[in-house]
Amino acid sequence: MLAALLVTLSAFSAQAEPTRIELYRGAPGPQIRYWDVSDTSLDSRQPNVNFGGRSLLEGGPGKVILIRFGDLARMTEGRRRVVGAKLHLTQIVGNEPVLREVRRVKVPWGEGPRTTLTGLRPAEGDKAPDGSATWNDRRAGSDAIGWQQRGAMGPEDGELVSGVKIVSTGNSQYAIEGLGMAVQAMLDRPYENEGFALIFESEVAFQSSEANRGVPRLELALAPAETPTGPDLAVTRIESIAEGEYRAQIQNVGDTPSQGFTATWIVRERKGARMDSGKPLQPGESMTLTIAAPIKRIGGDRRRQPLGILIQPLGRDARAENDGLTIDRDGVPLTIAVSKTSAEALGRPVEEWAQAQVRFLNDTVFAQSRFSFALEGVKERVRLQAVTLVEEGAQPPAGAAYAEAGAGLDLRLLKTICLGLGVPALEKMNGAAGSIPLPEFALRASTDRFGGLLGGGETRWDGGLPSQIDLPNEPVFSAILESTPMPETDLLSMTAVAILNRRLDGLALQSEAALSPLPITMLIRPTDLAGRSLGGTEFAFFAPEGGKYTLDQPLFTVLTSETGTAFLPKDVLQRLVAEIKDRPERGALLVRCVSRGQTEWAWLKLWRLMDAYARGNTAAAVIDLPFNVPTEPLEPSQNLAENKIVTDSGGGLPAQLIGLIDGKLGASVALSGEEGAWVEVDLGRDRPVAEVRLAMEPGAFWNRFDILFYATGQQPIEALKWARELDGAWTLANRAGPAEGSLRWLTYRGAAARVRFIRIVNREKREGASLAEIRVTPAQFTEGAPPARP
Predict the structure, then answer these.
(1) Which strands sit side by side in the sheet containing 401-403, from one edge to the other?
(2) Which of 141, 210, 327, 629 is an S-S bond match for 595, by CB 3.0 to 4.6 Å?
């Protein structure tokens, strides 16, 4: 009896333990990471300036810090009761922060654009970007919306959050505690989640969400909420019924009759008069309200025409989260077709699910896909016009996007909507290994490393780089790129954002030029893996036909100059760009190089040229193409490492390590996973080396490592960093040689040098590692060649 009681108490304790999550820009999330964070500072001394793009948040006398964490419902699904909330901030200047008050903001405001490398802090009196927040306005611009009281201090702007305090957590870290009830209100009523206003007594500055580290974090302790029952009034849709006229549907989606409600239309974030409806609604019954709200377009920005409605049930209501709905009136209308089977299994109204998909696309995917040429992301918006139910497997109505309603996001639906807006299927530009006819190309695929939602293109933030610097889509070392923070997202790529912002009216592609212009002059700069130019070399380009690459007849060839560059034929490339909307695979060109007796291959993705234009390189662009070629011919029949001396940082016994250099593909040898761990081959004397090959089980070896060379008489500290692997998993999946049993080979070629010691050093901590074989290929050059030097 006592044992059973203890088991019961233990189970109850485990069930009662809250789940803790941390939200910050880029935090892990279900399906897609968390991105919906906005923050800025308001300054009374510069009342018309927006500071949302900076990497710091300034507080103190005459200043207010605004910070908002959106997308809460997705991140807390299944545990909707907030039992604790803290806001963590990293201080960079100032004395001990003295918090005067925290207010929960109740009206929308705009963060403003990000700041690029060339972006300077706006001077006093400069015009703030449209829609951004300043001390005077929550939406600055030609049709500004002011705060009720400047600095967001009016009773309609926000309300005081009681019981908060700030505590030091060490190392310039501070936490504002006591925010649980306020966050619960934001979760319960997401249409009123406009974040917090922080007011400090002393001058302070914290890292913002644009910073490279120490960004604001919202820590939540969550517990399961009770399943709501009873009447549940919901705004299920707002649809256009005529030019400038809209109709909202209010439905009782609960299981018992409801009482009446009041309703308030909100046009362009301004509340109208309240309307009363005393009509009770039976479960499933609905009614409609209409409004005339003509659109006042502002340039090519679709974000500036929100229309919402907010209801206030007069009696009991199971859920408040569906009592309000906002659409973007000027957005592209969507019809979503949902299978009846998935809709019935959903457990909530299918319209709510569909609205959540559209809201995530607008508020996160579009808004947070930001680049140097799109500092506020995509200015296009979409709106849900209708949801139609279809039989399982049936063809959806013409123009409708098909979806399988279920828990979380429907990523296929989001992709379908983007493709319908004119974005090419970038994922199909990833050259498939099976489309290349020769056996040695078994893994000459070209999967984009940072393809994001659409599986292709470039999603890294480029605002810290000059626009002339090319962004390689393969893991090739660059000192500039390594030293520049370039966080990637799993949202939209540069290509997609540029296309969506260029054409903002209608689902159909307007013209070939609207898809993407190309730079007037386009050059390639082929290099080896160390960045050395391949001058005086011919390169052949192949395009797929019928989904396959044929290598007997290139599309065109170019010859690099002595400086290592070659012009690309614009007429040919522009014709391919015009084809890729319907034939996206045509956007991936396979490039052949024959150098020093070695044939090697690379890929030219046309989206790189499209991106170069979008980043401002309209007159000329230079694209780097890395090839895995040596500087001297190889002697492939020889293996300089065979039966030589091998050691490692873990002090492995010779009998344990001998398998790495015995010339046989046997069992893998265990190595340390610590950062800085190494394994080294001693060739016995200085030998000419131009290639190192490594055999491994997929996923078993270090993911980031350097290959170091040093000669007799040198120390490891003097070693040359001969090759650098930045993403071994990608290289193994895209550049490995043919499989030998369960093993794959990674091959590194580069500048031939006379070396004795070859050391491979791990640059990223992991749990253990193993390697099967090390082979070293000599170069064909004279004995008098110089040794490797750093």
Answers:
(1) 382-390, 332-339, 401-403
(2) 629
